[in-house]
């Protein structure tokens, strides 16, 4: 088992690398970072605590994530003409390590700015990404990623790439 400082550093590096994979459209590699049963959630209401019983901007299990990734990879996808590009600018993640004897879940909260451009248009969003990470075969994996947009309850255009 790694020391708490080295695990904290590993979680931070994992989150930075995840953002880089998305910025570089390396969606298959990003998908592989999800744990068995992993989910990606973007709430529709600030502070929303329940994804199952309330509408969300996105709530995708591994099957839905795979479908979205396959669509993004299609060269003739209508919503990707021209193709989107994105950039994540992350603040250093705040990491909470598991308590001794508790669940082995590493939690991190990362304030960020996300920019997406397609053609002559650009969209900029402020958000906080919350990760719940677990160790699978010694590697960190995403059990749940929740991205709460600062203005999640406002009318929004279609967000094409994952935040």
What would the keywords be for this entry?
single chain, 163 residues, alpha+beta, Nuclear Transport Factor 2, Chain: A, 7-stranded mixed β-sheet, 3 helices, 40% strand, globular, Phenylpropionate dioxygenase, dioxygenase activity, NTF2-like_dom_sf
Structural features, described:
Pfam families: Ring_hydroxyl_B (PF00866). This is Phenylpropionate dioxygenase. The protein has helices spanning 4-23, 27-31, 62-73, and strands at 34-43, 56-61, 85-90, 94-96, 106-118, 121-136, 139-149. The protein is of the alpha+beta class. It contains 3 helices and 7 strands, in the order H-H-E-E-H-E-E-E-E-E. It has one domain: Roll (Nuclear Transport Factor 2, Chain: A). It starts with a helix and ends in a 14-residue tail after the last strand. The longest helix is centred in the N-terminal third of the chain and has 20 residues, at 4-23. Strand 5 and strand 6 (121-136) form a beta hairpin. Strands 1, 2, 3, 4, 5, 6 and 7 form a 7-stranded mixed beta sheet that branches. The radius of gyration is 16 Å and the shape is globular.
Task: List the SSEs and their pairings.
Elements (H helix, E strand, L loop, with lengths): L3 H20 L3 H5 L2 E10 L12 E6 H12 L11 E6 L3 E3 L9 E13 L2 E16 L2 E11 L14
Parallel strand pairs: 1-7
Antiparallel strand pairs: 1-2, 3-5, 4-5, 5-6, 6-7
Family: Belongs to the bacterial ring-hydroxylating dioxygenase beta subunit family.
GO biological process, one term: 3-phenylpropionate catabolic process
Organism: Paraburkholderia pallida
């Amino acid at each position: 088992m790694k020391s708490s400082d080295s695990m904290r550093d590993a979680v931070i590096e994992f989150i930075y690398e995840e953002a880089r994979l998305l910025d570089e459209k390396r969606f298959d590699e990003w998908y592989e970072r999800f744990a068995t049963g992993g989910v990606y959630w973007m709430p529709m209401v600030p502070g929303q605590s329940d994804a199952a019983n309330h509408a969300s901007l996105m709530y995708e299990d591994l099957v839905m994530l795979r479908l979205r990734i396959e669509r993004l990879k299609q060269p003739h996808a209508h919503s990707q003409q021209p193709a989107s590009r994105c950039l994540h600018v992350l603040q250093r993640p705040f990491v909470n390590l598991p308590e001794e004897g508790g669940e082995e879940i590493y939690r991190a909260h990362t304030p960020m700015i996300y920019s997406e451009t397609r053609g002559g248009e650009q969209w900029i969003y402020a958000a906080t990404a919350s990760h719940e990470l677990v160790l699978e075969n010694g590697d960190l994996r995403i059990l749940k990623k929740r991205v709460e947009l600062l203005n999640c309850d406002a009318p929004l255009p279609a967000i094409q790439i994952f935040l």
